[in-house]
Every structure is written in structure tokens, then in C-alpha cells.
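Course assignment 3, question 2. Fill in each field.
Student: A.L.
Task: Predict the tertiary structure for the chain below.
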Amino acid sequence: MPKKKQEKRRLKKMAKFHLIFSVGLFVLYLGLSLSYSPEFFLKDIRDKFQAFGADTITVMATVLGPPVKPVVSTSAVCSNGTLSITLAWPADENSTAFDIERDGAPLVTGLGVSHYKDSLVAVGTTYVYVVTARGPMGSGVAVSDPVPVSTSPDCQVILPPPAVQIISISGQNILSFTGIPETTDLRPNFSGTTNIPNANIFLLIHGDIITSANIQANANGFWSWTPPLNLPLGPHTLFVAATDPLDPTRTASVSQDFTIVQEKSQNKNNSSKSSNNSSSQTKKPAAPAPNAPANGQQAGVPLDFSLALDQNAIFQGKDLATKITLSRLDPQYENSQAIVKYIILDDQGQQQSSALSDAMLHAGEVLSKNINVPTYFKSGQYSIRAEIIIGQYDVSRVNNFSVLPLPLVNLGGGIVATYPEILSQIGTISLWLLICLLIWLLLFSREYWLYLHAIRHITENNLAKTGLFGKPKGKGVSR
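Answer field:
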């Protein structure tokens, strides 16, 4: 009995210590997080649950029908002054699209076939390719092993003429598409490639709303863009021009018609009303695509501006100083009131924060504004998009910057512990301890229920312990 009592006391002390430590740690995490930034606390909790949900969804997608891991074969070919690398892998019925990365950067996304020819390569260079197969479940993916390919140093390459192409619209591969592609996405994502590394990409959408933007392709010639505003139902024309940043005379352009249609899942009344509107809109012919911009002049857009940053790296919680310089403004829009919108995007293109301001436009004017970078932003690469909305025009420019963590503890050797990271780790530990505490409470509640059950139900063993049965008699009969 003394040993059992000692074990019970020890368990009670452990449970009490667990309770005090877990609740105290969580209260510490809650207090420090809210004092640091309430947005940080909400974002940190949301990220933890989203990570758990994403892991769960990934497991479900993998069980239901995972894509087959691509086994990539490569070949580098030099023919008639043209150097290229061809990638091929077996077709898979469980894969609906393929993404290719080269040297860790996107090369092409949403590819609908199991082969690709990369013509943007240099002689005597080694490239590493990774092919990702995506299944119909969305989160089900299969990633190939990295495949290195080296080009011949003896190939006499003739500089090819500049080219640009549109590959996908909202994930739909249009390379082999016949007719005008349709999408229900009011803000479709456009992606494509060009054989000009780091090309300046000018995009223009013709429709009821004219949207313009300047972005930059990566070193592989890949570019991707999503309009900042919802587009109306009906036909549109996307115009894309790529210009060599080292030689403005090397430019290429392409245009693509597409149609935005209404979703079919809406009720009949709404669909009947909107179908009349959409049908009337679809009857309008799409506006003709403009000619390629000459010397950087953007046809069809009444203004042009540049977006500059005072610093390309900024600490969490500080202000990002931006400058918009109006290099061109049509006389009819001089002294016009416009809306200037600033949007901060993460490396996945997701909006993180935004700010609005009004401005009176003048040619040559510089619009300066400090945009706060919240403390709850994670360190990494971001981009800021500045939009000038005037009349039916929405013109945007993008510039990249990085967010640096506020150092709290410097352990040396490049190891820096930041305040948000320590808070997040404390939160993770406290949440797991609280889960363990709940398990403890469930076990103790079961034991307590069994204890109450034993007290409330009279058994022969209980009566014997209290002496109500008296001493047991012998089996034999005395004579």
C-alpha cells in the first residue's frame, strides 16, 4: 500500500507540474505574441493549422491516386547553329500537368505533354532539371530526381531571333488548343516563356477594362502574371511583348484571344439573367491587339511610370520607401485624379497587405510613399505592385525586395535566432503540451470513473473487506 500511495502521489505531482508548465508556457506565448503583434499571433496560429490540414490533404490525395514519379531522359543536340536540350519521360494517366524547374527556378508550368524542348541554353554549360507531376487531386504530386545535362562546348551557336509564347491560362495548356480558350476565373493566371533571359515583359489586356503591367521574366525566360482586377465576362485579348534588357531592339510579341464565361454551378434564375448579359458581351468582337511597343513606348496606354525602392532589403516592422516616377502622361489626363494602390505579394504571388492613396497626376511627377512591412511577415522574398487606376485603365509595375528578420540572439557562424522564430517555436511546444495535457485528463477521467464505479457498486469483495461476512468457516464438520 505505501508503494502504491507513493506512485499515486508521484503521478499527481507530475500531472500538476505538467498542467502548470503547459498553461504557463501557453500564457507566455500568448502574452509575448500579442505584445509583439496581434497579427503575428493570428497568422502563426493559422499557419500551424493550415500546415496540419495541408499534410492531411496530401496524404488523402496520395492514397486516392498519386501521380507516377517521372523518370526523365535528356539529350543535348547541336544542329545547324541551334543548341537545345530535350526532356522526355513516360506518360502517366494519373498526371494532368507537369512543371519543370531548371537550376531551382521555374522553366515552364502547366505542361500537358510528357516532353519539352529547352532552347534557351548556352554552350559548355551544365543545367539541372526537375520535373514535377501534378495529379487531379491538386495536392497529389510526384517529383523526379534532379537530372544534370551538359551542353557541348564545341557547338557554333547562331543567336536565334527573339520569341515569346503564352503557354497556359488558369492552368489550361493552350499550346495544342484549337479555338478560343474559355475560363471561369475572373482573374486568370497567364504564364509563358521567352528565349530572352531576364526579359522585360509588357502585358496588355483589351476589353471593357484595359489592364497593363510590366514584369520581368526569370533567367530561364519563364514569366507568370495575374491581373490585379476582376475581368468582366466576355471576350478579351492578351498582348505580350518581350524585350531584351541589354538590347531594346530585340523584341518579340504575341497575342491570344480568350473568353471568360460564367460558372455553370449557379442557380437557374441567376444563370438565365447572367447568360443574357454574357451572351450580349460575347457577341462583341474582341478589341484588336496592338502592335509591338516601339522603343519602350506602350501603345494604347495613356501613361507610363517606373517603380523604384530606396532599399531592396528591409527589416520586419520597418517602412518600405517607394517612388513612382511618371515618365509619360497623355495631355488629356494631366491634372486628373487617380487611385494609387500598393500591394505586397509573397514569393507565391499571394497578397499579404495593401494600401490605397489618391494622387493628382502630372507628367514627370514623383509620388513617394512609405509602406509598412508588418512584424508578422516571415523573412524571405517579396514583391510590391504599384497600380495607377484612372478611368478604364489599370497600369501596374512590380519591384522585388526581401524582408530580413529582426535578430534577437546571434549564435555566431551565421546562426541567428529571431524573435518571431522563437515565439513560433514556443507556440508549437505549448500547443503540443496542451494536447498531451488533454490526453492526461482523458486518462485520469477514466480512472476516476472506475473509482466511482467501484464505490457505488457493492461487491462481495467490498463486504469481505469491511468484515460483514465474518471469518470463513472450515469445510469439514467437527464431531
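Instructor remarks: The chain is about 25% helix and 40% strand. Residues 62-155 form a domain with the Immunoglobulin-like fold (CATH 2.60.40.10).
Grade: pending
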